[in-house]
Amino acid sequence: MSKIAVTGGAGFIGSHVVDRLIKENHDVVVIDDLSSGRKENINDNAVFYEVNICDPYLREVLGKESPESVIHLAAQASVRNSLANPRFDAHTNIIGSISLLESCKDLCIGKVVYASSVGVYGEPQYLPVDEMHPIKPISPYAVSKQTVENYLYYYKKTHNIDCVSLRFANVYGPRQDPNGEAGVIAVFINRLLQDQKAVINGDGGQTRDFVFVEDLAKAVLLALEKNTECNVFNIGTGSEVAIEKLYNNLKKIVDSSLFPIYGEPIGGEIRRMYVNPELVKKELEWMPETDLKSGLKKTISWFRSRKKEAI
Ligand SMILES: NC(=O)c1ccc[n+]([C@@H]2O[C@H](COP(=O)([O-])OP(=O)(O)OC[C@H]3O[C@@H](n4cnc5c(N)ncnc54)[C@H](O)[C@@H]3O)[C@@H](O)[C@H]2O)c1
User: Ligand 1 pocket, 89 CB below 6 A?
Assistant: First the structure.
């Protein structure tokens, strides 16, 4: 049992990571400014500080709580927002992360696990994408993720902080926000449960690698607990799912007869993406346990229960 600080612990992924840490008897400190996270997501057994990671008060919080490790998930997580406002994206994602890492260095915090993204690869040159694939980010968001990975390498080499970057594929599951620029699964489920047509941008043949959030939380904990020489891992299933097929699967599970609307393709959208998860399997002994159908069913149940609560 140890004390772990989780930045972004009120968010979609962060709240599942916190739940798992608490289940495994760790003390958890959540640091979140609630800009997109929700207070009700935070596990009752965690200590919560409403703090922006860019605020100098962050250092005071970390000094007071003195965690052994940090799981860094707080971010401006929207690609679209990063295109509209790259300065804000860089401020939160890069400057905020450097402030956090400087505090870790000064306070002798030994380990940092970071939420990066497969977005750093840009348009894949081959599939499945492994960790050796060239890094060619095509959004300010992906540039910020790559930049922080580089800073983590620097802090690891120069200041001896054990830093691990996890490049998440497309994460889905309970608590994902279906509004704004959310994961496509949350958006589709929300529309279908409201008996409204969902929009598929383009022809629906674009593919993604969907990983269930509870499986991903397990990967984050393994990265925290295990010592490895590798400092970057892809976290995905290794399976490629077309968006149109995904929609049809969801339609079947919720027993809907609604056909989607086909909208304009999104400019610059990557056509195909799925990762090679062999390195994380070998080094961290992580395997995704939830197949897509079971994960979708669990996610739909959560959306249904939320809908009932709202009535
Ligand atoms: N969801 C995905 O498919 C996906 C894929 C790749 C990478 N990621 C990364 O995983 C992490 C978590 O993403 P998520 O999907 O849970 O998003 P989210 O928006 O639900 O979580 C982000 C959390 O960070 C908090 N936050 C934002 N700016 C902050 C700041 N300046 N100070 C303190 N807290 C701040 C938000 O309030 C929120 O609780 C992010 O770093 C994101 O870039 C997510």
Answer: no
Q: Is 0.70 surpassed by the pTM of this model?
A: yes
Under 8 Å between Cβ of 23 and 90: no
Q: How far is the CA of 223 from the centre of ligand 1 (A)?
A: 18
For residue 275, pLDDT beyond 90: yes
Q: Which atom of ligand 1 is nearest to the CA of 72?
A: 41
Q: Which fold has domain 3-171+210-235?
A: Rossmann fold (3.40.50)
Cis-peptide into 86, omega within 30 deg: no
| CA pair distance 218, 21, nearest whole angstrom | 9
CA of 258 to the centre of ligand 1 (A): 32
Report whether residue 100 contacts ligand 1, using a CB cutoff of 6 Å: no
Would you kindly state where each structural domain of the chain is located, as residue ranges?
A: 3-171+210-235, 173-208+239-273+289-310
Q: Is 114 in the pocket of ligand 1 (CB under 6 A)?
A: no
User: What span, in angstroms and rounded, lies between the C-alpha atoms of 278 and 265?
Assistant: 32
Active site residues: 141
pLDDT tens digits for range 219-248: 999 999 999 888 999 999 999 999 999 999
Distance of CA 60 to the CA centre of its chain: 26
**Looking at the DSSP assignment, which residues form a beta bridge with residue 156?**
none
Has residue 268 got a pLDDT over 80? no
- Check pocket membership of 77 for ligand 1, CB cut-off 6 A: yes
Q: What is the pLDDT of residue 265?
A: 82
173-208+239-273+289-310 adopts what CATH topology? UDP-galactose 4-epimerase; domain 1 (3.90.25)
